[in-house]
């Protein structure tokens, strides 16, 4: 069955028109005859959006009961049974009510797509999982409902629904987004122009990156080599010399002039024997380019200009930044240099910037290693010298009589020149042609192919032997130099790679991307299996090529041990490249092992934290729970004693002691159970809108009368909370404040509104807490100062913060002006649909 297609309307903030655009698209499809239904659409009471639902078939929602409330959710089974061509599913990041088949709505959408149903959905940029920290830094609010980025990236179409901040604020002011009583708070907080502009930029950049990925994939699939300058990409060519930092900074300034510009610094390790780079300088340049937001790339290439241009076209670059040549003037006789060659061959689609620097014309710093494998132009000149040189020399010597010895020396010098230029074969050709000409023109009898004097035969044989020997030595030296240069290039890459891996700077995907980039492959994957009979599984994959499931499907496979292999697609590698590939494969296995060890260490750390909690729990049970039990036991024993006649006052005092001990036990056990729920992530808040004055007074029932006073105005907006969790959190806060407040100084519980938040402050006049300990008091089993052992197990504040964060709020400690401590509980004001979360996040609950 063909998988359905997913289309997502992406917006920067609520109210930009995502649902409206989705419904308008549905009407267009219905008019074209497409079977389209509304699986779940939330109009939030917006009249214009609600009107668009008319004329569309709606699948009835499924109502789920949970903790005394009824909540509507998408009926996934009904949609699958109806089996439309297109289903509209609003709010992709929504968390389903407990009791649903899936925890998240995007998982419901995955089932619809698997069933072959096309889905049109909506999501805001702040709900993408990877942007949670960024959005929190902008808005001050942590998004509890998120969707994995990969779900959105896999969508067949992502359409940006855009609106300027000014237009969105006008919509808000006109009442088209929220209810009138919520407009002022929204405009002064989340819908501030700065917030909306930053969120809009996030959305635009994310969609631009997505479009760039589509473009790269299209160019790869259609083998488009011509550069399409959709955005500025500046490639900075590095030689490892000191001028590299100047070039990187110039490239960064060029990138800043164009929105979304990128800097890609590339060092091409030559195999032609030119100056090697300084590893220390390369490390400094790599650090600099990464600090400036760019990326560093290390590539092997025999032809520097060709490799640089191939890399630039491969990444769809628009500009290349190179430094002026460090060669001295006389060195230009060997060729125009890399910069001039790149500028000449770049074509009209690539701009080349030649940047001056302090090292111009000062030399390369290290001697040039000559004699690398002979290039094409050098071989051509060798053949010209070896074939055309002897006839020209013979014509010249016919005009001047220098004697046979001198003639032979001149022909021998020409053979040596051909050997130095072109290697063995041109030298053999020169020796053969030269010996024939010597025999015909200069060896008696002249102008005949015979040799009368045997001594002349010996001279000609020696002449040929010397030419062949010189040519062989030149060719062998060229091969050895090429091998040494290649080994040096390989060692540079491997040392650079090993340094990154040992420092832990390279992940598995980054390493595979480096392999793919270094060898110019389409894709790279690390495959593994548990045994010889088990199927292969992919531990990591990069690239755009067709994915391979087994090593034998790849163009190149490199085994790593018995049950792991590195598989590459794109071309067949020569045997000499497999040595470096084997090192890459071994490093990939090391990176994979290190990643798994890190995961095991994280699990071990979690277990250790659990052991610490359990140890503290046992300590609490051994003392704090035994103390009230001992008091109850003593009071009961005394009352049952027949040897003592207790007065009514004494009996009442003993019964009061029993009741107080039972209350302490109930409080301690309740906190222990709450902490265990938080640690295991089983706290499921049932969020609903409620007034604070309905909950907060109930939390004061456990403290002595007169020890706390309440100031919660009735005009406060309603809050979106779980009433039970809020009551427990407030009770713990008030009891903790009363415990440390001096006699005659009642604790103040005050409420106030701030933008779209409501704050509840619990103010005491106790000794206070220093700044360095304000976070530590929220940790489980922590007591501050000289609190007695019988004062509790140190869980009250930890439970209160855990419950606050489970409801989407925060709990912080502040100094009370004049002395004391103030606990600030911040809650989300009602006004938007409650966010249902199946479980609180354990790592945040433990804070």
Structural summary, described in words:
The chain has 847 residues and is an alpha/beta fold. 47% of the residues lie in helices and 16% in strands. It has 24 helices and 24 strands. The strands form six sheets. The protein has a six-stranded parallel beta sheet, sandwiched between helices. The chain has a five-stranded parallel beta sheet with strand order 11-10-9-12-13. A five-stranded mixed beta sheet has the order 19-21-22-24-23. α14 packs antiparallel against α15 (404-422), α14 packs parallel to α16 and α17 packs parallel to α19. The longest helix is centred in the last third of the chain and has 63 residues, at 578-640. The chain is elongated. Mean pLDDT is 78; it is low at 363-372, 786-791 and 832-847.
Strand content: 15-25%
Structure annotation, total helices: 24
Largest sheet: 6 strands, parallel
Global shape: elongated
Mean pLDDT: 78
Question: Could you estimate the helical fraction of the residues in percent?
Answer: 40-55%
| DSSP strand tally | 24
Overall structural class, as computed from helix and strand content, comes to alpha/beta
Computed Rg: 40 Å
- Side by side, the strands of the main sheet go 3-2-6-7-1-8
Low-confidence segments, given as residue ranges, are 363-372, 786-791, 832-847
End-to-end C-alpha gap: 47 Å
Transmembrane segments: 380-397, 409-437, 457-478
Catalytic activity: ATP + protein L-histidine = ADP + protein N-phospho-L-histidine
EC number: 2.7.13.3
Keywords: ATP-binding, Kinase, Membrane, Nucleotide-binding, Phosphoprotein, Transferase, Transmembrane, Transmembrane helix, Two-component regulatory system
